Amino acid sequence: MTEQKYWFKAHRYGYGWSPNTWQGWVTVLLYIIALVYSFIEVTKQFHTTSDIMLNFFLRVVIFSAILIIIAYFKGEPASWQWSRKNEKKDF
User: Fold this and answer.
1) Could you report how far apart the first and last alpha carbons of the chain are, in Å?
2) Is residue 11 classed exposed, middle or buried when 0-12, 13-18 and 19+ CB atoms within 10 A define those classes?
3) pTM for this one?
């Protein structure tokens, strides 16, 4: 049985994930491509700045939610951290 390789590793400080394998990097690259393509499509469809920003913002929220869901299921368990667990404190 092979060991599961996480696509995303948990941050050392704070909460969240960073790409850890080529699959994680491809996921982030697809996310960026989707945002750029969406922005181009939105600017073709709408002509006022408020319409462009509103429609693009909705797409950013949707794509970001999808990225977070993928990172949650394919990444290390994340938890809020202020410092490394075995770190010496100087006070």
Assistant:
1) 46
2) middle
3) 0.77
